[in-house]
Structures are given as structure tokens and as C-alpha cells.
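User: Here's a structure from my thesis project, written as C-alpha cells. My advisor, Dr. K., wants to see whether a designed sequence matches the one we expressed. Can you design one independently, without my sequence as a hint?
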């Protein structure tokens, strides 16, 4: 019995001597792996075991040092592009994978919109992201003019407006735009006073593009769970808007440059090039919407005499003064074009006969009231002649109506000038057509 007990004690001592270091090694490795799961690769593996086990320990330490160098700070490096907290996970590997996937999607989005031809196309991509990536069922997308505070609806999924009409005329009524901060209805009862439905939940995200333009995304839902999901997606949606920002800025600049090339430098009115480029689009839209246009062709009577007698400086003053009257006499939906020299073209959108004649009479009478100082003591007064044609009543294309308005103008000049003449088919000579 004594010999057996002694044998057992010896065996236990041997086991303790040889096995315990391995147990400590496994415990140490388990601790290091547990830290690695939380993104900490600073653990130093230690062991008193020699041979292959020692080699394993050295290799593990080498591997963890490399992992710490390459991966340990990866989420902090990624935070340069995606702010920390945007993706919440206890598993840093999953978090990093999610962030990298998000960066990849945003990169693809940016490369796509860089090849889009207009600002409206880019807006369409953003709308697709909201619908297809984030599955937002109810939302409105607005463009805001930062200078005038006017808000334009770009897209909405709703039949009824989300905000009071006054908000579109003055976006400062919108809490999100006014405060430049995300507005979430669940944070306080009746938070935004511009919202029509006090029972609806909403998340409104404002985003500034530049000094001139801002965007607002207003997402709504009657379910709190959907609002919670919207709140989680706020940062991610902003990432897409941030990616789109330089492209939209570039498109705005291109629009400004193009607009400059399509306007007359002296009067600020559209020029003949604008008419050539956009008349077909205007006609196509008019045909689809069954719109009408009253076409007015204006000409300053005996204008050549002004330049010949008083010089081109006085002539320019006459042209600028007339252009100001035109701007003040038409609506935003109407067009005023310097057709050439002293000749101007007005296109009144959906104007009835009474409105058409009222505008023509106003322009005619207001210009007749003007006096121009020509340095001779006696001021110069001038008159204009106006020819009118109606689309599609007089012609089936706007180009024809422009020709017919010019024919009516010619008739006004031939019959004494300083008058308004509406086009009649009888003004054409037999067999003449356009």
C-alpha cells in the first residue's frame, strides 16, 4: 500500500511538472484570443514549455504583433471616412467588414454619379438609394435656395404635402433647414410646426451643398420601429449626400456657366442661342401638357435713328430700359428673349386673350412713358411696335408662331408703327407659307 501510494504521488508530481505548463499555455492562449475578439492584439503569449510548443508561442506572438500593426487600429483609420459609432457591433471584424462594404458602395455610387449628365440625374440616384438600399417607404426630397429660402419639391412618395404650403415659399419655417440639424419627431411633441400631420412620425435630414443650395430629406412613418431604423441610417444617408456634394456643386457650376452663355450680357435676358437650344424641349413639354403660348414680337420704332443721331451709348440705354420693363411685366413661367438688336420676343405661358393683351398693352404704355437724356436739353422719347401670335391656335409649332408674330410686327410697322397687332391669316400673301 505504501509503495502504491508513493507511486501515485510520484505520478501526480510528474503530471504536474509536465502537464501544468501546457495547461497554463492553453489558458494564456485563451486569454489572448478573447482579447483579439475585441480588437486587442497586444497580448503577449508566454510559456515555460520548450520544443515545438515554444515555437508555437513565438509564432503566435509574431502573428499578433503583425495583426496589431495592420488590423488593431483599422477601425480608427476607417473613421477617417466613416465616423465611429456609425456601425455598432461588439465584433470589430464584423464592424470593419461592414464599414468597408459601406465605403465600397459609396465609392461605386460616386463613380456612377460622376458620369451623370445633370443635377436632376444625381438627385434621381439619391432617391433610388433611399428607396432601394434603405427601403424608405414614405419620404420627400427637397432642394432649398439658401439665398431666397425658397424650397422646391424634387420628389415625393405622398399624394398630400407633408408641410404647410408657406414652407415652400420660406424654408425657414422648416426646423431642420433653419437649425441645420436633424429633426426627429419622437424627441419632443409637435417638434416642427411646419408639419401638417401632428400624428405622423418623421426624421428630417438637412444637408448643405454650397452657399446657394441645400437639400432636405424628410422621411415619415406611423410606426416607431421604422423611425428607430431611420435614426440608425441617418449617418449612412449623410455619407451618400457627402459623396454627392462635389458632383452636385460641379453640376450647379456648369448650369451657371451654361446659363451665362444663354443670356444676353447687356440686358440679362435669354438670347437667341437659348431659343435655338430649348425651343424643341418647350414644344415637347407643351404638347404633353396641352400648354399654350402667346408669342409677342417687339421692336423699337426708328431705333437705327437713335444710334445714328445720338450714338450707341444712348441706344444701349433704350435697350436696357425696355428689357427692365419686360422683366417686370411677365411672370416666372414666362420667357423674355432678346431676339436680336432692338428686337425682343416674349412667350407668355398659358395666357388667355385678355391676359395676353393686358401684358402687351402694359409693355407698350410703360415704354412710351420713358424719357432718355441725350445731352441736347430735350429728352428723347421712343415707342415700340408689337406683333402677337398664339400657339397652337395660329400655328402647330412655336417656330411658326414666332414667324407669324414677326409678320404681325411687320404689319404694325407698315401701318404706322407704335401699335399692337395680332396675327391674321390674311396677312400672308397668296401662296406664302412658313
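Assistant: Designed independently from the structure alone:
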Amino acid at each position: 500500500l505504501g509503495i502504491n501510494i508513493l507511486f501515485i504521488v510520484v505520478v501526480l508530481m510528474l503530471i504536474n511538472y509536465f502537464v501544468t505548463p501546457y495547461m497554463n499555455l492553453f489558458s494564456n492562449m485563451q486569454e489572448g484570443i478573447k482579447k483579439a475578439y475585441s480588437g486587442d492584439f497586444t497580448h503577449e503569449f508566454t510559456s515555460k514549455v520548450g520544443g515545438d510548443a515554444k515555437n508555437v508561442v513565438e509564432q503566435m506572438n509574431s502573428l499578433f504583433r503583425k495583426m496589431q500593426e495592420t488590423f488593431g487600429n483599422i477601425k480608427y483609420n476607417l473613421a477617417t471616412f466613416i465616423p465611429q459609432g456609425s456601425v455598432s457591433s461588439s465584433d470589430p471584424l464584423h464592424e470593419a467588414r461592414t464599414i468597408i462594404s459601406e465605403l465600397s458602395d459609396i465609392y461605386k455610387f460616386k463613380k456612377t454619379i460622376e458620369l451623370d449628365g445633370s443635377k436632376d440625374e444625381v438627385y434621381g440616384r439619391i432617391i433610388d438609394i433611399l428607396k432601394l438600399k434603405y427601403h424608405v417607404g414614405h419620404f420627400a426630397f427637397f432642394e432649398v435656395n439658401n439665398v431666397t429660402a425658397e424650397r422646391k419639391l424634387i420628389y415625393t412618395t405622398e399624394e398630400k404635402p407633408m408641410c404647410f404650403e408657406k414652407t415652400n415659399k420660406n424654408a425657414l419655417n422648416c426646423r431642420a433647414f433653419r437649425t441645420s440639424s436633424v429633426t426627429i419627431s419622437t424627441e419632443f411633441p409637435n417638434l416642427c410646426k411646419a408639419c401638417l400631420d401632428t400624428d405622423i412620425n418623421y426624421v428630417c435630414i438637412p444637408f448643405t451643398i454650397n452657399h446657394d443650395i441645400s437639400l432636405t430629406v424628410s422621411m415619415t412613418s406611423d410606426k416607431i420601429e421604422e423611425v428607430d431604423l431611420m435614426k440608425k441610417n441617418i449617418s449612412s444617408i449623410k455619407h451618400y449626400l457627402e459623396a454627392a456634394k462635389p458632383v452636385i456643386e460641379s453640376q450647379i457650376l456648369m448650369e451657371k456657366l451654361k446659363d451665362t452663355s444663354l443670356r444676353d450680357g447687356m440686358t440679362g435676358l435669354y438670347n437667341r442661342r437659348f431659343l435655338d437650344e430649348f425651343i424643341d424641349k418647350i414644344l415637347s413639354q407643351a404638347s404633353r401638357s396641352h400648354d399654350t403660348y402667346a408669342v409677342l414680337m417687339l421692336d423699337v420704332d426708328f431705333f437705327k435713328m437713335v444710334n445714328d443721331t445720338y450714338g450707341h451709348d444712348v441706344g444701349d440705354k433704350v435697350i436696357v430700359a425696355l428689357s427692365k420693363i419686360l422683366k417686370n411685366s411677365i411672370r416666372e413661367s414666362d420667357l423674355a428673349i432678346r431676339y436680336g438688336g432692338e428686337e425682343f420676343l416674349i412667350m407668355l405661358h398659358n395666357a388667355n386673350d385678355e391676359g395676353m393683351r393686358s401684358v402687351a398693352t402694359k409693355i407698350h404704355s410703360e415704354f412710351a412713358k420713358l424719357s432718355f437724356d441725350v445731352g441736347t436739353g430735350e429728352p428723347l422719347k421712343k415707342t415700340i411696335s408689337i406683333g402677337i401670335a398664339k400657339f397652337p391656335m395660329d400655328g402647330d409649332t412655336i417656330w411658326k408662331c414666332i414667324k407669324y408674330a414677326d409678320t404681325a410686327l411687320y404689319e404694325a410697322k407698315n401701318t404706322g408703327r407704335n401699335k399692337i397687332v395680332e396675327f391674321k391669316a390674311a396677312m400672308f400673301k397668296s401662296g406664302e407659307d412658313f
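When you compare it with your expressed construct, this may help: The first strand starts at residue 139 and ends at 145.
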